[in-house]
Amino acid sequence: xxxxxxxxxxxxxxxxxxxxxxxxxxxxxxxxxxxxxxxxxxxxxxxxxxxxxxxxxxxxxxxxxxxxxxxxxxxxxxxxxxxxxxxxxxxxxxxxxxxxxxxxxxxxxxxxxxxxxxxxxxxxxxxxxxxxxxxxxxxxxxxxxxxxxxxxxxxxxxxxxxxxxxxxxxxxxxxxxxxxxxxxxxxxxxxxxxxxxxxxxxxxxxxxxxxxxxxxxxxxxxxxxxxxxxxxxxxxxxxx
Length: 240
Prior knowledge:
- By secondary structure, this protein is α/β, with parallel strands linked by helices.
- It is 30% helix and 20% strand.
- It has six helices and nine strands, in the order βαβαββααβββαβαβ.
- The protein has a six-stranded parallel beta sheet with strand order 1-9-8-5-2-3, with helices on one face.
- α2 (42-51) runs parallel beside α3 (82-91).
- The radius of gyration is 17 Å and the shape is globular.
């Protein structure tokens, strides 16, 4: 694990963008394509806008396949839809072909959406082990990541798949990759900034292990690497 701390949000965005391009180019050089899993939320939106402008000529985007680590079960044109945000800020500006975009079909029921996405991922990798080149993750102030929320049943799912989760407080369904599937990735990058995330960062990185309370602690690949990209505010509670 490597922890990268920068003073400003802009510096954090540049650092993770550089990292993505490096991993992507290496994947293309090695395997001919780059399979990346995108995150939703406000933090990645800044990253996507940077990639689609300053970095549009840094990698061959025609060789990049885009997936999503989780999704809200809302219509595809809903502002809260992760794929919708990614299309507006990254995929459309880069003119990414539809064949390279693997979004979650939320027109289906939650369970059908999850089953369909699990199948689409398996079909893409064919008979090979499902292993993404890079998964981008965020972190909530409650230490959730993707849609792996504290004390939800999906945290106990050991299958490398996509599952549903119902958030009782919000009365909404989400679809998410399981921790097991995420942990199969070659590289995982957490993008976190803001003082409101400092306590969660501290508990996930330095606290006692409690995967039910701090789901991001479940992200621990055996054969991959994790990089954390933090601003000083998000890292302010860390001892080191």
